[in-house]
């Protein structure tokens, strides 16, 4: 059986990966690692694993050695070296950090303050949005798993941009995310009494997902796309909902767009276009790998409003990474990802 | 001492009015009324009033008879007749419903499906946004208290529109509100397990606050203003935060705008412009009559992003109504409204 | 393949059953029914099922006709007639309501105001707590699936009572439940703004789970057990945590009790005794079929404090019903129930 | 005007004190201090104070020098020295920490690992529960402001214990608190994604409020009282609800107890006994200085169940401290504390 490993298993993304992978029918966990908790049992760190696994956090070298597929769930800047080793060993690397998401090194330098240490590797990496790059993913050994906000926005805009139907200079993405997106690191912003019953944007005009969104949307549109992207923090655990405003080049019929989206995503098992008149909501995709999209017009202005919602930890991180693994290994795209969202 | 009454005291807005008025230093409550609970003690309906008042819900006629200032907190369509009687009796009416907010009867008919029953009265009414109409309010006997979303948006845009600095055809208002805005009526959308841990927009392109926002912004700008307004429901009790996107006519310096806002609101005791670099958040105005505004630029596009946040039940309803009463009666504008938001 | 049906599929318990059963590897859904929504597609009622199933709510007779195993998720008093028909047809009935939980008809009459309409059927029914009645369940065709509060309390006390180690007249069960326990019916108590940021007990000394708890605990202890049971409503969606206070007959060593519990539950795949020093929490079992139990002493009084926590919708309802089905059909006890709780 | 100061103004209790004192009609703030934020404006630390005060955190010596009444809101062990200086200067000290709550030095040593550094001072201090010690408080210059849990429990049990009506060896206090009780220090337990949608007890049998509860209850009962006290953390910001179980010595009529409580608290402006049949809830006292108590019997066991609920930050800390100040200074007991809880 294929052996899978997680480097960075004790962050939220790593923990979610492990949770989903433990129930994946076609792989087994070969090893997990954590710098902070090396030598400790994972179920002493996250009690939801109590009696469900005996895995111990090892050194990351053990993960590379013991596994065929290696997921890296690390802060940016730490994955390149590991990816190199994995690729050199003819294994598969799926990186859930930001290291390989941008192909433009200048943008990377601008937003992350750092050059590519392995420029050759970047050329081999594929941006792991299956609804965009399915065939490339299948033959790749190095996946840049997309960011959570970008996933919600790119899925929401792809059919319009592919078909050159909207003004690429007037797109506004007002996104709202649950707090798991901020990870397990403690901060006043995620201290319960300060986040609960509050709501606010953060990093206005300054969030590192902006260049990723723009690069991918530009690639899709085959022209330069600018967005205004404003992330907000919701006092809930999981889920991203992006409210996307864009301007059609010509008058557009909503039913036409609806059909376009349905056709575009007809082979995408996780992207679901709601019937016209319905509105996408976080509760219906929470804890699943699904993306719900609903389409709306402001009739008085011929403006399109797209609601796109995913679980930031699953379709926005761990679930999408597993979807990429499934594609690479020739499994069913939804193996281990069939969970239906609890409605409540 | 001035006697004040509330018609519709058992809805959320009426209850909040009563709560604030019971601690107002310069008035006393003359009577309250409720159709659904006539004859019942208010503290049997809302236990927070237990031992704090002996008021009983009377018939609305008693309120008009016994009081000098009458607050009407009713569903739309029910306040006109009462207002007429109050005005005919030379008393003061502050309406927290929608009946007098729109001056354009056609718009009212379009959005509310009903004609004005007292057109003359509408001419006498003043839109009760003190930061816009302070002098008119002082001499009025009939106040149309603004809606909650419009208050947050109008305060956020007023200085820019007054000074003709932005494109009036490209304004997007992405607003998020706590659930008290939906009132005490039960619905699946506010059933705890369906709203908690969820988030979604509602009434996209279709919310009745839209014509109010556009009419008032047009009045401020002295030209026709169109907005795209999308309300969302937050899984919290109180607070509205509006993220407003607009396009400056010319390149604009953020410090210039910041100074403009500070000057504009220098005599407004409840509107506070945060220092540049800080971001307005619901937690800092919750349960107070304050409005916090923060100003931002997307430098890469010369786009202005305004964050404007209020407590929907206070500055967005009951508090603003009391502020209007204070102005009419010649009290200090902040009498009974000095509450500082608990930060947690 | 075995065909399974749900009568009452549009309540919260029915919806949760459907959600879990759709991913069960060894059965298929034959039919579902709902009185309120007959003829409607389930995914028009619960949008989490969008594109995941085409099931339509049929008449309950269709469910009985088409299926081999019938789950009844109905208000009390409605399951007896259906159960009779199912049993008469040599099929299997798992009742998630209260109709068969009490074997003492007088108690049933006292608490539910109604006699048994099918007394013979009651003799055939088995109380479906697998950790207590596994062998009986395997050969039964009629299961009374336990209540949510009773499950948490019975699992928490069973090892002590089986071994006659505590005073059976001085047991206090202080239980706290998420709001899904109240179902989908609207009420002020579960109206978001009234439940959020609040907390309170309800039905003190008066909850219908009391006789179930006492009857089962008495059966376990083989002597009359009285409890004081106080349920509280938590402002969260899911989870029950019971804090159980009891008095040992003799001085007892906590390590001895801990070993006793571990031995008692060594073959129970879903009951997990935390290491001494750790404390059970809802977050670690939420959305899974697991029960976490932690054991504590008040050393200064020789009093035992047991914390027992489950997901009220899963181990407290739908999950346990599936566990019972698995046992009856000879499946692995955890088929379809391997979900690990998300820690966040 | 009396000058009041706060030492430790940037913790949650200090911040709440400042918020309430800024609206107190009969005092002014002389100075505030903070070790961590010395020299900084308070409104740069807590934005709810923006434009509401220009106070700067000074050195604590300035507070003692400039003020007549000094509130100390500090971790235990830090108040004794300051209190000495305040008292030596013939000023008034109200300590919101634990330093003066226990009169038994051995207990203090056992629970806090430290001896009294100023034993003489302890003899002068008065336990500041006004409903117990009103006359002593009025003439004291050194107040030990009670803990939050103890306040809820002592108010809930006082009338029964004063009248020797219950077994003093069989009292169980199952208490649940909002997260502000844990203060502003960051921890995984109050990290939003780990606390939200969860619930659990903590420090079972081990919480430092235990000796305070027992010492005060013993003083009230005039005999040794033991309690089992289990605190739990609620995923809400504010409020404590204690469910208290006790056994009457004789059969007791609930109406008799209800009258006893009403009589006992007839002069207490903040303690309110709900009518029989109603149940106390956090939402009705949240953000006020009120305590709601409801009384219940488990008829089948002659056991009394008392529900006592307060806002942990107000009646459980800052509000009670101001109530004590009012008594000492001869103000109305409720000056500055008339806030009515928002019901939603």
Automatic annotation (TrEMBL), chains A, B, C, D:
Catalytic residue positions: 148
Keyword NADP recorded: yes
Pfam family, one: Semialdhyde_dhC_1
Single GO molecular function: N-acetyl-gamma-glutamyl-phosphate reductase activity
Metabolic or biological pathway, per its Swiss-Prot or TrEMBL entry: Amino-acid biosynthesis; L-arginine biosynthesis; N(2)-acetyl-L-ornithine from L-glutamate: step 3/4
SUPFAM superfamilies: Glyceraldehyde-3-phosphate dehydrogenase-like, C-terminal domain, NAD(P)-binding Rossmann-fold domains
Subcellular location(s) per record: Cytoplasm
PROSITE patterns the record matches: ARGC
E.C. numbers: 1.2.1.38
Amino-acid biosynthesis listed as a keyword: yes
Residue span, Semialdehyde dehydrogenase NAD-binding domain: 3-140
Keywords: Amino-acid biosynthesis, Arginine biosynthesis, Cytoplasm, NADP, Oxidoreductase
Catalytic reactions on record: N-acetyl-L-glutamate 5-semialdehyde + phosphate + NADP(+) = N-acetyl-L-glutamyl 5-phosphate + NADPH + H(+)
Family of this protein: Belongs to the NAGSA dehydrogenase family. Type 1 subfamily.
Classification via NCBIfam families: argC
Main function: Catalyzes the NADPH-dependent reduction of N-acetyl-5-glutamyl phosphate to yield N-acetyl-L-glutamate 5-semialdehyde.
Protein name: N-acetyl-gamma-glutamyl-phosphate reductase
Organism encoding this protein: Clostridium weizhouense
